Amino acid sequence: MFFVTEPNTKPWTMQQIADAAGVSVTTVSHTMSGKRPVNPQTALRIKRLIDEFGYVPDAGARRLQSGRSRMIGLAVPDISNWYFGRIARGAEEMADELDYGLIVCSTFNSDPRREKRYFNMVRTRMIDGLVYTAGREMNEMNELEKVALSSPVVLADEGINRLSSIPWVTSENFEGGRLAGAHVRELGHTKAVIIGGFAGLNSTVERVAGIREFFPNALVLNGDFEMQSGYDLVGDLLANDVRFTAVFGGNDLMAIGAIKRLREAGLRVPEDVTVVGFDDVEIASVITPALTTVRQDVVSIGRNSARLLIEGLEAGTFEGTSSVILPVQLVVRATSGPLAPDPRR
Amino acid sequence: MFFVTEPNTKPWTMQQIADAAGVSVTTVSHTMSGKRPVNPQTALRIKRLIDEFGYVPDAGARRLQSGRSRMIGLAVPDISNWYFGRIARGAEEMADELDYGLIVCSTFNSDPRREKRYFNMVRTRMIDGLVYTAGREMNEMNELEKVALSSPVVLADEGINRLSSIPWVTSENFEGGRLAGAHVRELGHTKAVIIGGFAGLNSTVERVAGIREFFPNALVLNGDFEMQSGYDLVGDLLANDVRFTAVFGGNDLMAIGAIKRLREAGLRVPEDVTVVGFDDVEIASVITPALTTVRQDVVSIGRNSARLLIEGLEAGTFEGTSSVILPVQLVVRATSGPLAPDPRR
DNA sequence: CGCATACTGCAAAACGCTTTGCGCATCACA
DNA sequence: TGTGATGCGCAAAGCGTTTTGCAGTATGCG
Lengths: 345, 345
Fold this sequence. Notes:
Two copies of one chain form a homodimer. Chain A has three domains: 1-55, 434 Repressor (Amino-terminal Domain) (Orthogonal Bundle); 67-170 and 298-325, Rossmann fold (3-Layer(aba) Sandwich); 173-297, 3-Layer(aba) Sandwich (Rossmann fold), CATH 3.40.50.2300. The termini of chain A are far apart. Helix content of chain A is 42%, strand content 15%. In chain A, strand 3 (129-133), helix 7 (141-150) and strand 4 (153-156) form a beta-alpha-beta unit. In chain A, the strands form three sheets. In chain A, strands 2-1-3-4-5-11 form a six-stranded parallel β-sheet, with helices on both faces. In chain A, strands 7-6-8-9 form a four-stranded parallel β-sheet, sandwiched between helices. In chain A, strands 10-12 form a two-stranded antiparallel sheet. Chain A has helices at residues 14-21, 25-33, 40-53, 59-66, 82-97, 112-123, 141-150, 173-186, 202-212, 227-239, 252-264, 298-315, and strands at 71-76, 101-106, 129-133, 153-156, 168-171, 192-196, 219-222, 246-249, 274-276, 293-296, 324-326, 328-331. By secondary structure, the first copy, chain A, is α/β, with parallel strands linked by helices. Chains A and B meet through helix 4, helix 5, strand 2, helix 6 and helix 7 of A and helix 4, helix 5, strand 2, helix 6 and helix 7 of B. Chain A binds a DNA duplex through residues 13-15, 23-27, 29-30, 33, 35-39, 42, 57-58, 60-67.
């Protein structure tokens, strides 16, 4: 008797509950919302019926009338990516705590069509506001700008310079770069390369700037945050006989790809080359040797983004809302160390 | 002039478009839906205005009237988990191709409150149907059953015996177990242990049964699919002096945890112990030594689930819809091999 | 010229809910 | 008993769409 055989049974309406209880819909509505007192006996009877029928008010009708859906959206480049998954997790936690629903959507790495679709979700009032996570240089920047003009939007993970008036949540990227740079510098390294993320991202720019406080001339290559690109870029460096004793990864994945490539070239980590990542993904502590990295609290990015958005929503304005910058932390493990004498050198 | 300063501007209504074009809303509506012919000139004028105003029809009102939202939901235990992220990715792809929207929600490992919330999303008609992914033994099984009674539900990844009439999508788990078992058997191993997933899951039961075709007496321990539990369970085995030369992981993460623990105990992989995983996560090919595993096409699970659901939705019934079982594939890498003489033995 | 036959557009009725304006009891207090 | 306050329920007016029944204007054809 599942849907298999019995299609779309009509759900109960509030009117039917009212009829069954012998009252008007007004009374049922007030019983549910508590916005006006209702005779305790009547209320009890109504509540019983609601339970019995399994009645749930229609979301669309409710929204239509009240103007709010108590739903927010989260747009990320790719939900299957660990990093964005964590953000989603955090946002969902916070939304839940504040009694909002969260709708997660992938823009498939900023596919303009998808982005438009999600921006429209706030336009169609399906959601009350949007947390947007830029994956790279934005395609539909203008669209975002337009949406933000009249609806609440918060930027997670990446601030966008042009859109400076939109609240955002991110990590101390510059400081993270500094921490990594200082650590490697102290180990005595002088020649370093940076496998950064997308060049257009603030986070990339800031991390690089932080590292360069200690390695002013470090070569910067830009990858796409995937393991493979770390692998490939180190391959390019080796093929060009670039000399370096330290590699900074724009994230852990690229750092891990780099390590793989270094090893295949017969280089030892950390004896010959020190490698430092960024993020502290779960796997970082498991690979051999365990990865030295800069930990950021990705879940918190999600949590705070959702919080900012919902607070703005309830307040009706972002006036006075200030962006959030979360602390990072250097985690020293086994891929960083002083230069060891090369047995072959 | 962002939302920061200018709260909730009212969106345009169809009436306003109609007024501006000097026609009635009927004409505007028909222009948009194409359900009745409209004078080309009038239509053009209306379309121009729609673009100019940036008008988008209200989703709630539309749903209220038409009865369908063209949105489906996907409930997974934890969106930040790689595995479920892949499923979400696949479902989202397919939904997009079929011009549906997808709403992804975490049940936070079957938190009853959350589950209820998502089941209610289909009750409130916010979504037209639901793809449900069980993470472990289900808590709100009865709820699911009730929902499935009147609304389209598809099970992804895990079939549920009691709910055999609900369509489901999964991998050839039994065959996967057999492949792994046969491979390890051929390498000459005779003593194996299985670090399985949750005991209550069909997939776990089937994989174990497949392996046991070749290792009838293999000890089975149940983990939670996380790396740590693979690590811990192997620790228990070692502490109890259990003798084995092969470990089957219920997934790659647990296999990787197991390897870590084995190494810490001074055992070599694969010389002393062969380890085989399940899934073929990205990291499996990167760790050293690279992991031998059974590959399943997780994205396809998501894709097919969404497809089944939407097809049922459009057809108005699941009559004739048959469940999907996807093929798996053994990927032999470096963690499996014949037993090598232990130098210390 | 007269009568079907499109072709277009309008008014109005839902859809299921929230909220407001009223009115009828009931009650307290003088 | 009169007066004001309070409690509680009803009817009805939207909210922004889609869809249906009608009607007015052309057009085609004998």
